[in-house]
Amino acid sequence: MSDFLENVKQLFEMYLTKAADISGSIGSFVLHFGVIAELYTLLVRWVFPILAVTIFLRCILPLLQDRKRNAAWGYLNITDGTRIPLRHWENSIGRSNFCDIVIKVHFVSRNHAVLTFRHGAWSIAEINSKNGVQVNGVKIEKPETVQYGDIISLGGVEMELVQADKEPMEVAQQNDTARYVSSRGDIKPGTTFLLILLMQILGGLQICFSKGAELNPAVPVTFLFFILTECFHYIIMRWCSRKRFEPELLCYLLCGLSLLIVASAAPDSIFKQFAAILLGLAVYTALDLIIRDLGRAGKLKYLLAASALLLLILNLTIGETRFGAKRWIDLGLISFQPSEFVKIAFVMAGAATLDRLLTTRNMTAFIGFSAACIGALILMRDFGNVLVFFATFIVIAFMRSGDVRTIALTSAGAVLGGIAVVSFMPYIASRFAAWGNVWEYADTSGYQQTRTMIAAASGGLLGVGGGNGYLANIAAAHTDLVFGMLCEEWGLLVALTAVLIVVFFASYAVFLTKDCRSSFYAIVACGAASIFLLQTTLNVLGSVDILPLTGITFPFVSHGGSSMIASWGLLALIKSADERITPGKRTISGEGD
Amino acid sequence: MKLLLKRSAVLLIFSLLLSLGLAVFLMKYFHSASAWVQYPTNKHLYASGKLVSSGTIYDRSGTILLQMIDGTIEFHEDKTVRTAVMHATGDLSGNVETGAQVAFGDRLSGWDLVNGTYRFNDRLSSGSNLTLTLDAHLCAAAYKELNGRKGTVGVYNYKTGEILCMVSSPSFDPENHPDVKANPKKYEGVYLNRLLSAAYTPGSVFKLVTAAAAIDNIDSIDEKLYHCDGKLQIGEDMVNCLAAHGEVTLEEALADSCNVAFARIALELGADTLQKYADLAGFNSSLTINGIKTAMGKAELSDAEGGDLAWAGIGQYTNTANPLNFMAFMGAIANDGVRVTPKILSDRGIISLPATTETRILSSKTAEKLGKMMRNNTISAYGEENFKGLELCAKSGTAEVGGVEKPHAWFAGFLAREDSPLAFVVVIENGGSGSKVAGSVAVNVLQAAVKI
CATH topology for B202-320? Predict the structure, then answer.
């Protein structure tokens, strides 16, 4: 009983002190104008993570829920009456379970043929099968065009190619409308977009409040322009694109974070960062338009590969060394990092359509190109990017060949090579020396990592409020250590959301692969996602000493024009694999022609 | 596209690696963020190496042990009190690793996992306050009793786990930091909290461990008699007693602290059984006191045989004991065989910390029997009139440390009183006789403790 009374007494006393605190704070609210800013931070640091997580969920759920199958582009009627829909532009036929059209007949080879739909016409190509392919009874020697009504015969199995009963787009349209009506709880991208704008306005104001009189007027102006740009781009997308644009929304979110980081750490260059976002959007739109036609994409691939090699040679000859890596080209007015743009070319260079992928196992050209890129990067001492390119090479090479042994051998070779490099170059070895026990080198070679961890710990889950961090004063905080800045100023929850967005992009690319029209798009999507993933891995885990620090940017978030533009370009590559249609869209684009 | 879907799994492997790395980071973060944040260059908490703001440290009755006034740390106004609790609060330069300023620095600075270092309105708020379970005046009394001798006194409530008294000597007045290096002998290990971080040869107090093993493992131990003629030859080793005790039971052997009888018992039990009971009693492991790890006592008996095993059974082999850990063993005997892990932070108030850990280390019957024997020790050996009204159950230890040094004096036990469920330990380095030297410190501290 006395315990109880004691507790009540304590409770009472506690509330009394709290009340005194509150009345005290109201008193000083009147006294100090600055308290408004502090009250604002008090509120925003709670709202911000909630918004970030909500937006993230609202964006990923529709993308993953959308389990609708592609419409059929045509049908194959087998003599026994079965009707097989052709759901892709490229359909492999064979006995293997991994073929798009599985025919379990002994005389059919594991991977027998590929049926391709290109420029409104179908063609069939035979892939090293035992029994060959006949069209209307004639054995084919090279890929042959197939007309509707023609009989295709594989190892004795006869199939008739039949036109889709309706225009494929109409079918899709019907399915879509039905689904749209049935699911009332559909998450509307418009609301999500408004939440993103709200988050950016709140964040921008927070920076303005915390900087107070020292505020660079460019900051609010840039935020205003950025929000207007987003609105403009959103409306264009809404009108012109049939695709879902949640991925773009997620990138808005990341770009917004990037501007907040720059506003806090390097406010003088915030307008430059915004200009990079604009250029990025332009590159994104252009690439999106060009590569939606496979023929154009195939041509662009060679053009880009050639310019990539040219850029790398230029970089090696007139490049400039900064922070130990020769990865800059300075053109007087602007300087940029060629390796960032080479990423787009690299991913596209590796892509191939399914018929080529299954007929020619030969990847010499791609391997040669990869070796040239990686070799150039080694010469530039840009070792972080060497890792990014190499991992992406593995992803693409594996998607093309499916050959585990070759990949394993290549990786083993690369690891040995890496060890050799580390043992010969003291510059990298010193980075490895601090790795894993940075606290022992806290003020020397582990300086950046320990400061990142201190900042991350100081931020807690909710952060100390934008513009209130101290990591911003450390070199490269807004590029290499951007994860730490996010943690410190906006909290661990927001920083984790940013990383999870990239993890999501990877799963999204894999998810898209299943229903992709052409293997070309599947490969570029996975390749681009791989670059995002690797950059994030090296940036985030490097800055907190799980991996060695390599000085790589966080896609969309780190301060840096080249990285920002390239990130938008890579997003276009991921998006190219997405064939699904936004609910309630009428536009039919000329995919088939 | 099924083929490519299968092959694209390699991308999932990469994303798994990132997620894994992130998970490792998060584990590190939740485990060590409180330590990272205290790095002295962190401008959120420190200005030129000094804490910008610190909460107040109170003792159990609300006495202020440490507070920050206008950016400077101030201790209790009484010199003896602040010297006695110096190891609990820590000094101004953070030399005492287990002191609250270091061990709970994150909380004192106002850091927490959700808010980080964020404080709403700097002018109104400071760090968070801490209430220790200690009683400042009891600590001061214990420090006075030690009277400059090196050693430690610990008292805790074996039902709640609250540590009431934690004193380590030598100590110093934290407001007048002495030149420790100029006087290395006087200030030997001064930054060490001997209760938490020291380990001494236990000597005869270890006989309680041997006795617990004997109660459980030797048939009809109550009737069994052990012969003592003052010495026992085992191989080349000779175990001596102060006197020839004749035929003694376990209870008499414990009261007389008969080395020969316990040597025989140890040999009878064997190394493995003794090892098991030493481990149960808390040897070879640390206790965690609100996140502070105690030093580990050692008892490596598995290789001991013959004379070594005999010496081990009377606590004079290679064994060492951490005072706090041993005090918790006393508490377990008192508390029906259940050890309540001691704690230093008071969790009274609105938000209570996770409940104290309770571990059964002895069976209820064994604990009761051992407790009765310890009560008998007081009555027949230490003299009940010296410990009037305390219901004292105890065991003394005079641990030989070799050479010309005087032995360490141990006195450990508990009060069998419902109103004051206290267990205690007193160790005085090179103090001499356990029951006389350490016992007289214990009696005065305990008489003060029961009045709280």
Answer: Beta-lactamase (3.40.710)
